[in-house]
Specification:
The protein is α/β, with parallel strands linked by helices and 312 residues long. The protein is built from 10 helices and 13 strands. The mean pLDDT is 96. Bound molecules: guanosine-5'-diphosphate (GDP).
Length: 312
């Protein structure tokens, strides 16, 4: 059952911060059907790390609602080698936008987190209340600490000033705007590209990193955008909300699905010299379901759409 809406986007001025990114871009696409007045700004015009620039922008625009999808992002390698940039830039972006949003009276703000906020040894599926119950994965703790601070800022401004600021917590995403660089991409775009190129070159095999046994959850970024727009309308509380598909596949199953989607008929070879990473990372989406939202695209459907738009 869908809860009664608490906020309407229709006719409202809405700023998507981070509209050039994969998530921000999807939110912009999704808001196209909400009848709102959408505003965006480029990095050349407003550097979100600079407080005075953010304050001036928000004072002049005075949006009713903000989707905060701007962040410095990167894979394990970038996180590990640039800890200062990941911690500093993400904390500044969040603090600047959330504080200035309060100053100019923004009525709704939706902050986007990341699954790495949860403790490395969190129970599976991971419930929202697992936050801050144990040590983080050390390789991305800089980014995670900044994202946890963002969630806490939303809670603090709600408690002290009554701001309707909420936080959504997406799982692993895929879809338009993804990174297909084999060195720095995540597994799903990497496998799509590898299978496509293997098919074109007539290769006999496709190399999959690790054992193929780890399990991962995947959500199409357009489903994420739909979920956060839904949450903006129906949710108003302190605790963040997990946004995921609620189902998982092994990397081997994913590779098989990708090969079937692409039409690559060779064999899979598992390169166990590459790391497996976390064995399992699945969100508990019972709260999201109770708020009346569940994913529209099964993985097979989303994969086909993504393959066609990226390589078709
Ligand atoms: P994670 O979810 O943070 O661990 O990040 P990834 O999406 O990069 O990796 C998920 C899993 O997929 C790991 O077990 C990887 O070893 C495995 N994997 C298999 N093949 C690939 C590949 O070609 N690229 C990447 N990035 N991961 C791969």
């Amino acid at each position: 059952m869908t809860p009664t809406p608490v906020f309407s986007l229709s006719g409202k001025k809405v700023w998507v911060a981070g509209h050039r990114g994969m998530v921000g871009g999807a939110i912009v696409r999704r808001l196209g059907s909400e009848g709102c007045d959408l505003v965006t700004v480029s990095r050349d015009q407003v550097d979100l790390v600079r407080q005075s620039a953010v304050e001036a922008w928000l004072a002049s625009e005075k949006p009713d609602c903000i989707f905060l999808a701007a962040a410095k992002v990167g894979g394990i390698q970038a996180n590990n080698t640039k800890p200062a940039e990941f911690l500093y830039e993400n904390m500044m972006i969040e603090a600047n936008i959330i504080h200035a949003a309060h100053q100019v009276g923004v009525k709704k703000l939706v902050f986007l987190g990341s699954t790495c906020i949860y403790p490395k040894m969190a129970p599976q599926p991971i419930p929202e209340h697992a936050l801050l119950t144990g040590p983080l994965e050390p390789t991305n703790e800089w980014y995670a600490i900044a994202k946890i601070a963002g969630i806490k800022l939303c809670q603090a401004y709600r408690r002290q000033y009554g701001c309707d600021f909420i936080a959504a917590q997406p799982t692993n995403l895929y879809g338009p705007g993804d990174n297909y660089d084999l060195e720095s991409s995540h597994v799903l775009p990497a496998l799509l590209r590898k299978a496509h190129e293997a098919k074109l070159s007539g290769a006999a095999e496709l190399v999959v990193w690790g054992s193929g046994n780890p399990r991962r959850e995947f959500l199409h970024v357009d489903d994420l955008a739909d979920a956060v727009v839904h949450l903006a309308k129906v949710y108003s509380d302190e605790e963040h909300v997990n946004v995921g598909s609620g189902s998982e596949v092994t990397i081997k199953e994913l590779a098989e699905l990708v090969c079937a989607t692409v039409g690559f008929q060779g064999s899979l070879r598992f390169d166990v010299s590459k790391p497996d990473g976390t064995p399992r990372k699945l969100s508990d989406v019972s709260k999201l379901h109770s708020l009346g939202w569940s994913q529209a695209r099964p993985l097979q459907v989303g994969l086909t759409q993504t393959y066609q738009s990226a390589f078709g």
